[in-house]
Amino acid sequence: MISKISMSLFGAFAALIFVAAPAVAQSNVTDAYATDSSGQIVRSGTGLCWRTSAWTPEKAIEECDPDLVKRPQPKPVVAAPVPAPVARVMDSDGDGVPDNLDRCPNTPAGARVNANGCEPDSDGDGVVDRLDRCPDTPAGAKVGANGCELDSDRDGVVDRLDRCPGSKAGVKVDARGCEIPEVIALRGVRFATNSAALTPVSSAILDDAAATLTKRGTVRVEVAGHTDNRGSAVRNRALSQQRAEAVMRYLVSKGANAANLTARGYGPDAPIADNGTATGRADNRRVELRIMQ
Questions:
Q1: pLDDT bucket at 193, cuts 50 / 70 / 90
Q2: Sheet harboring 221-225: ordered strands across?
Q3: What are the contacts of 110-118 at 24+ separation with CB within 8 A?
Q4: Predicted pLDDT at 293
Q5: What does the alpha-carbon distance between residue 177 and residue 183 come to, in Å, rounded to a whole number?
Q6: What value does the CA radius of gyration of the chain take, rounded to a whole number of Å?
Q7: What's residue 226's pLDDT?
Q8: What pLDDT digit, counting tens, does each position of 251-265 carry?
Q9: 3-state class of 288 per DSSP?
């Protein structure tokens, strides 16, 4: 009798528990937890899942034993790579050449420069092309701030070529920088006897004279022909005129300005020596350049 009563009470108690336990959502099938006929996990009145004897920590499920279930670890957030800072290229004078390559860091704005940042100096005289007023200076020549060769005495002949470097201001000089006298005797200029034909030895002297006249292109010059007193005065004047003209033509052929030259024959009328001697007569037979201005 007692046994029947005990069994009845146990059944009633179990039914009470099952009625009191709230239902849970359908879970994954597992033998670690007690389930009802519908496959739902049975819970206690406090909401705990009923474990079976087959339960192990490895069989724990999230809804019943969340602390025992290994959750997938979130993937670490990989930060986007930070680009390396771009080095700033400095060009202080704005010439297009970076400061670390610029050998002339203070180039004026707008100036043309080489790969090293310096202005070009085509003739290598130390004056950049932008300021050079004489861009073809010979190598090694001394120049001023404008790139032109020095002319210390300002006679128009640069120091490198000046053989008379102390010329007075305003005096006329020849191609060597030496003062031109008012009358230049072309000693050594010779003609065939009784003729206006120049002899070959005259060329060197006349070449120098032509170079001087070409250099001093504004100087007006009279080519004066002279004879000794032998023979007819009329003939001598005509011959001296012909010889003066022959010299003038030669000078023009070598570059002298024809517009600045005139020819005049004086015959025997302006002797510089004694016609009574052979030496005197030779001195009187001459051609001169007379500086007119």
A1: confident
A2: 183-185, 287-291, 221-225, 261-265
A3: 117/93
A4: 63
A5: 17
A6: 61
A7: 95
A8: 999 999 999 999 999
A9: strand
Tokens of residue 268, six digits: 């025997």
Helix (H), strand (E) at residue 33: none
Other CB atoms within 10 A of residue 60 CB: 20
74 vs 237, residue with greater confidence: 237
Q: Which CATH architecture has domain 183-291?
A: 2-Layer Sandwich (3.30)
Tokens of 289: 């350049």
> If phi over 0 gives left and psi between -120 and 50 gives alpha, with beta otherwise, what is residue 281?
alpha
pTM above 0.70, yes or no: no
Structural domain boundaries in the chain: 2-68, 183-291
Tokens of 53: 């004897």
Nearest to 160 by CA among 142, 180, 137: 142
Strand pairing class (287-291; 221-225): antiparallel
- Residue 181 burial by Cβ neighbours in a 10 Å radius (0-12, 13-18, 19+): exposed
H/E element holding 18? helix 2-20
Q: Does the structure show a pLDDT above 70 at 133?
A: yes
Q: Is the pLDDT of residue 16 over 70?
A: no
In this prediction, residue 8 carries a pLDDT of 44
Contact residues for 232 (Cβ-Cβ < 8 A; gap 6+): none
**CA dihedral for 201, 207, 210, 211, sign (positive or negative):** negative
